[in-house]
Design brief:
The protein is an alpha+beta fold and 89 residues long. It has one domain: Alpha-Beta Plaits (2-Layer Sandwich). The protein is built from four helices and four strands. It has a four-stranded antiparallel beta sheet with strand order 2-3-1-4. It starts with a strand and ends with a strand.
Length: 89
């Protein structure tokens, strides 16, 4: 199981946080588990999500070319590209 960290900006942190369960469900559909949200403490609109997965490539593929339902969820959550992905070494 590898840990992956995804960082990006959002339009509004409070709105993004309201979608926590929907985000965890969407990431779960890509094979991720133990989804944890993080908010920058400097007051910026920078957030992160950590995910555990056995299939890092599936996560990377979904982020690189999001299917329509994932793209719609990202827009609803206020995600602002680009997304930066860190994979546990």
């Amino acid at each position: 199981m590898s840990r992956t960290l995804i960082t990006h900006d959002v339009a509004d942190v409070d709105t993004w946080l309201q979608y926590k369960s929907e985000r965890a469900e969407a990431i779960g559909g890509m094979g991720g588990s133990n989804v944890v949200d993080y908010v920058a403490q400097d007051g910026s609109k920078r957030v992160a999500v950590s995910v555990e997965t056995d299939d890092v490539e599936a996560i990377l593929a979904a982020i690189a070319s999001p299917p329509p339902e994932l793209l719609a969820a990202m827009e609803r959550h206020g995600v602002i590209p680009p997304l930066t992905v860190y994979v546990e070494g």
